[in-house]
Amino acid sequence: MDDSHKSYEPKTHLGMAIDPIHVGTGGTGLGRVDNAIVRDPVTRVPKIPGSSLAGVFRTYAAMAQQAGEPNRQVDGKSKPYYPDCAGLGQPKGNNSGHCARNDCPICTTFGFARGNAGGFAGLAAFSDAHVLLFPVATREGPIWLTCPMAMRTVGQELNGVADDAVYRNGGSSQPLNLGWLLLPVKHLNGAESVTQALKERQVPEYILDHVAALPDKLFSHVVNSNLEVRTSVAIDPETGAAEDGALFTYEALPRATVLVWDVTCKNPAHFKAGGEQVAAVKSPDDVHKVVATAHPYFEHLGIGGMGTRGMGRLRVLSETASHAESATATAKEPS
Question: Which structural domain, as residue segments, surrounds residue 168?
Answer without folding.
Answer: 138-225
